[in-house]
Specification:
The protein is an alpha/beta fold and 769 residues long. It has 24 helices and 30 strands. It has a ten-stranded mixed beta sheet with strand order 6-13-7-8-12-9-11-10-14-15. A hairpin with a 5-residue loop joins β22 and β23.
Length: 769
C-alpha cells in the first residue's frame, strides 16, 4: 500500500496528525486532490486517533500544501488541533490513501448527520440517473453519520451499512479518490443498498405510494434518519385533527416540513439568517413568525401561537414525499405521550398501530436514535436552540482542559448528558423526561455508547442537587466514582459561561420553572454571583407557596389565586371566581382554607410560575397541557406597541435582595377593569420584568463590583424578555452574554454541570453562600 520509494532528494518532509471532525466528511479525497495539484508525495490514512499523513515535496510546494490543508478543509470538516514535525524524506513517488488503522488512543470526532447535498438532490430527481428516486443517496458531503455508526474508526464495517455489499459500480466509486463518493461509508444504489416498503396497519405490503396516501388524508409513520415521524398533509384539517386525537396531543404545536424554501416563504416570514439555518447541512426545525392569512388549520397546528416550526427535506426519502400539489406536511416525532422517539420497525408497527394508517419502512438500521433539532433566530439576531440533536450531536464544544473526564447527567426534563474529553464537551442527543422508564433506559444506553465512542471512562459524575431526580439516584448508585451534586441554577449559569468562554466571576440572572435550592425551596428567579468553583445567591423573586408542587405547575389557575391572595388579600377569592370561572370550586376552597390556616407549604421563587399566574388571570391559559404553555402563549399575545410598566419593590432581607412583584397586581387588575387589551397588559408585564431585573442587577453590581452578566434558564426562550432586557442592561453598562450553542433551558445544564465538576473535583452541596 505504500507509495513506491525513489532515491531521496533534497526535499522537505513532514509527519502530520490532524484531529477533529476529519472522517466521513471527504477529508482524505480532498487532501488527495490537493496533493495532486501541488505535486505532493506520500500517504494519508484514517486512524481512531485522527488523520495521519507523511508528505514530502520541494519546500515551497509543501508549505503551500500545509497552509491550504489547515486553512481550507472540506466544508463539513472541523480541524480542532494538529501536530506537525519535520522528518527525513522517504523518496515516495506518488500520493496514496492507505487503509484505516486503530490506535490505542481514540481522539477522532464523529460527524453529525448531514442533510442531503445539492449534487445528491439533483441525482434523486434526475430520471436518467441510475439513482433516480432512490431514497438512500449520499456522498462524502452528506448523509447519515452519527445515527448509523457503531464504533470507530468510521468505516463501513463499523456502521449499520455493513450488511449491504456494494455492487461493482458503487465499489468503483467508493475506491476512486477523485469521486465524491470515495469512502462514503453509506454508499449504495437500488441494486445493492437498503430499500423501502409500504405496509398497512396489518403488516401487509401495499402498492400505493406515499404521496398518494398523504393526499387521501392518511397518517403515515415514516422511518427517517434518526427515527420515525408521523406525517399528514398539513392543509387537510380532518387529517391534522385526526392525528391530534390519535396521538393524544392536545395543544403542543406540530412541526412542519415544507417542500422547498419557496414553499416555506408562503407560510412564514423568513430572514436571511433564518434561511441560512433552514438550508444548512444541519437542517433543523426553525421556529419563525407565521404569516397571517394562511391556507392552514392554524388552530390545530399551532394553537395560541404566532410562530411555525418548519424544516426542509433533509434526506432523499423526504423529497419523495412531495409533488406539485402536496407542498406542506406535518412531520411530528413518532412517540407515544412522553415515551422515547421510535426508531425500530417492529416497535413502530406495534406501538403506532392505533395512530398510523400506513408505515413507510426501510431496512437500514438506526443505531443511535436522534430527534430533529429545534432552534430559532432570536430578536438579537443570534441562534438559539430549543432542542440540540440531529445535525449538532455529537459535535464537541470547546471548554478549558480538565485533568480527568467527567460525566454530567443533566436534569430530569429535556434531559441531555455530557461527557468531557481533553478540552471538549460532548452533549448527547435529547432524551426527554426521565420519569418515563423507556427514556431513562435510553439515557443509560446512550451513556455507554458515548463512553465507547469517545473511548473514555469518566472518573467523576456530576448531578443535580434534587434528591429525587432519576439522574441523582442513578449517579449515587455508581460505585467507585466521585460524585458532585451541583445546584440547578448554578449549572445554568456555568453553561452560559462555558460556551461564551468566560473565566472569573460573573453575575447570573437565571429564570426558569423549577430547580431545587440549597434552602429546600424551589428556585426559578435568581441572581447569582460566582464562577466554576463556587457561587452565592444575591437575590431572588419573592417566595410564594407552591402547594402540590408539580400539580400547581400544571395548573396556572392555582398560581393565579396564590398571587392574588398575596397581593390583595381575601378579596382574591371572589375576584378569582370572576377572572377564572373554570377554576373548580372545591379546589379553590381547599386552597383558601390552607392559605387561611397558614399551612406550611413548599416555597418557590419560580419565574415560570409568575408567568403562569399572569396568563391565567388574563384568561390566556389556565391549564398547561405541555410544559411552558402559559408562558409561551402569554408572549404570543403581547402587543409590542404598548408602552409603560407596573410597580415593583426591591427589598433587602438579611442581605438578600428580594424582587417583589406584588405591587404590580392591583395595577394590572385595574388595567383589566379599564378595558386595556390582554395584549397590552401582557406587554406591560414583560416590561415590568425588564425593569425589576435591570434594577436588581444594578444593585448586585454595586455589591459585587461585577459588570458581566449571563442570562440563562428556559424563560430566556422568551424573545421579549431576552431582547428588551439585553438592551436595557447594555444601556446600563453591563456586558451581557446569552446562549447560542446549547439550549438556555434544561437541555443545556449538563454542560454547566460538567465544567463545574471538572473544576471543583470534590463533593459539594451546591452553594458557598
Amino acid at each position: 500500500m505504500e507509495g513506491t520509494r525513489q532515491e531521496a532528494s533534497a526535499v522537505l518532509a513532514y509527519e502530520m496528525k490532524i484531529f477533529g471532525i476529519v472522517q466521513g466528511v471527504g477529508f482524505r479525497p480532498h487532501v488527495f486532490r490537493l496533493a495532486a495539484e501541488l505535486g505532493i508525495r506520500g500517504w494519508i490514512l484514517n486512524s481512531s486517533a485522527g488523520v495521519f499523513l507523511e508528505v514530502e515535496a520541494e519546500e515551497e510546494s509543501l508549505r503551500e500544501f500545509t497552509r491550504r490543508l489547515l486553512a481550507e478543509p472540506p466544508p463539513l470538516a472541523l480541524i480542532r488541533d494538529y501536530q506537525l514535525r519535520e522528518i527525513e524524506a522517504q523518496g515516495f513517488s506518488d500520493f496514496q490513501i492507505r487503509e484505516s488503522e486503530s490506535q490505542e488512543e481514540l481522539l477522532v470526532m464523529v460527524s453529525p448527520d448531514i442533510a442531503v447535498c445539492h449534487d445528491c438532490r439533483r441525482e434523486v430527481m434526475d430520471p436518467v440517473d441510475r439513482r433516480y428516486a432512490y431514497p438512500f443517496i449520499n456522498c462524502t458531503n452528506c448523509g447519515p453519520r452519527f445515527t448509523i455508526i457503531k464504533d470507530l474508526p468510521y468505516d463501513r464495517a463499523q456502521t449499520t451499512m455493513a450488511e449491504f455489499t456494494m455492487c461493482p459500480e458503487c465499489d468503483r466509486e467508493y475506491h476512486n479518490p477523485l469521486h465524491r463518493r470515495f469512502h462514503a461509508q453509506p454508499n449504495a444504489c437500488p441494486l445493492c443498498g437498503p430499500h423501502i416498503s409500504m405496509l398497512d396497519s396489518n403488516g401487509n405490503e401495499v402498492a400505493q405510494g406515499a404521496v398518494e396516501l398523504l393526499k387521501k388524508g392518511c397518517i403515515l409513520a415514516v422511518k427517517g434518519l434518526g427515527g420515525f415521524h408521523l406525517a399528514v398533509d398539513a392543509r387537510n384539517r380532518e387529517a391534522v385533527s385526526c392525528l391530534r386525537q390519535r396521538k393524544h396531543r392536545d395543544a403542543k404545536p406540530f412541526a412542519l416540513m415544507a417542500r422547498d424554501l419557496e414553499t416555506a416563504r408562503k407560510y412564514c416570514h423568513i430572514s436571511q439568517l433564518e434561511e441560512q439555518h433552514l438550508t444548512s447541512g444541519r437542517a433543523p426545525i426553525v421556529v419563525m413568525e407565521s404569516r397571517t392569512e394562511l391556507d392552514l388549520p392554524q388552530d390545530l397546528i399551532h394553537p395560541g401561537l404566532n410562530t411555525l416550526g418548519i424544516m426542509l427535506p433533509y434526506t432523499p426519502l423526504h423529497y419523495l414525499l412531495f409533488d406539485d400539489e402536496l407542498e406542506l406536511l406535518v412531520m411530528t416525532s413518532a412517540n407515544i405521550s412522553d415515551e422515547p422517539l421510535i426508531y425500530e420497525n417492529e416497535t413502530a408497527q406495534k406501538k403506532l398501530a392505533g395512530i398510523a394508517d400506513y408505515f413507510l419502512l426501510h431496512n437500514r438500521d438506526i443505531f443511535n436514535p436522534c430527534d430533529d433539532s429545534v432552534m430559532r433566530v432570536t430578536a438579537l439576531n443570534t441562534p438559539q436552540l430549543f432542542r440540540r440533536a440531529r445535525g449538532y450531536v455529537p459535535l464537541g464544544i470547546r471548554i478549558p482542559s480538565s485533568s480527568s473526564p467527567v460525566l454530567a447527567v443533566g436534569g430530569e426534563m429535556k434531559n441531555t448528558f455530557c461527557i468531557t474529553r481533553q478540552g471538549e464537551a460532548y452533549l448527547s442527543q435529547h432524551w426527554g423526561d426521565l420519569n418515563h422508564y423507556l427514556n431513562f433506559r435510553n439515557f443509560q444506553d446512550g451513556i455507554e455508547r458515548f463512553k465507547n465512542m469517545l473511548a473514555v471512562e469518566p472518573q467523576v459524575i456530576a448531578h443535580d442537587l434534587h434528591p429525587n431526580y432519576q439522574t441523582t439516584r442513578w449517579a449515587r448508585e455508581q460505585e467507585h466514582m466521585e460524585k458532585i451534586a451541583i445546584q440547578h441554577h448554578w449549572a445554568h449559569m456555568a453553561s452560559a459561561m462555558a460556551e461564551n468562554q468566560l473565566q472569573g466571576e460573573v453575575l447570573g440572572l437565571i429564570c426558569d420553572g423549577t430547580g431545587w435550592g440549597t434552602d429546600g425551596a424551589v428556585w426559578g428567579g435568581e441572581i447569582l454571583q460566582g464562577d466554576y468553583r463556587q457561587f452565592s445567591r444575591l437575590g431572588h423573586l419573592q417566595y410564594l407557596p407552591l402547594p402540590g408542587g408539580d400539580l400547581t405547575a400544571r395548573r396556572p389557575y392555582r398560581m393565579a389565586l396564590l398571587y392574588l391572595l398575596a397581593a390583595i388579600g381575601e378579596k382574591a377569592a371572589a375576584l378569582s371566581r370572576d377572572l377564572i370561572p373554570a377554576f373548580p370550586e372545591e379546589e379553590r376552597e381547599l386552597m383558601l382554607q390552607r392559605w387561611q390556616k397558614g399551612t406550611r407549604e413548599l416555597q418557590t421563587s419560580s419565574c415560570g410560575r409568575l408567568f403562569d399566574a399572569v396568563a391565567a388571570v388574563l384568561g390566556i391559559c389556565i391549564v398547561n397541557r405541555y410544559e411552558g404553555q402559559a408562558a409561551i402563549e402569554l408572549e404570543a399575545r403581547a402587543d409590542y406597541t404598548q408602552r409603560g410598566s407596573y410597580s415593583y419593590a426591591l427589598n433587602d432581607e438579611n442581605g438578600m435582595l428580594i424582587m417583589n412583584l406584588l405591587p404590580m397586581w392591583p395595577e394590572l387588575l385595574a388595567d383589566r377593569k379599564k378595558g386595556i387589551s390582554v395584549g397590552g397588559i401582557a406587554q406591560k408585564f414583560h416590561l415590568t420584568l425588564v425593569d425589576v431585573f435591570t434594577a436588581a442587577l444594578d444593585r448586585s453590581r454595586e455589591k459585587s463590583g461585577l459588570s458581566r452578566v449571563v442570562l440563562s434558564g428556559g424563560a430566556f426562550h422568551n424573545q421579549i424578555l431576552l431582547f428588551k432586557l439585553s438592551e436595557a442592561l447594555k444601556k446600563a453598562g453591563f456586558e451581557v452574554y446569552h446562549q447560542q450553542q446549547v439550549p438556555p433551558g434544561d437541555g443545556g445544564i449538563a454542560l454547566g454541570q460538567a465544567i463545574i465538576a471538572s473544576e471543583v473535583k470534590a463533593n459539594v452541596s451546591g452553594s458557598t453562600g
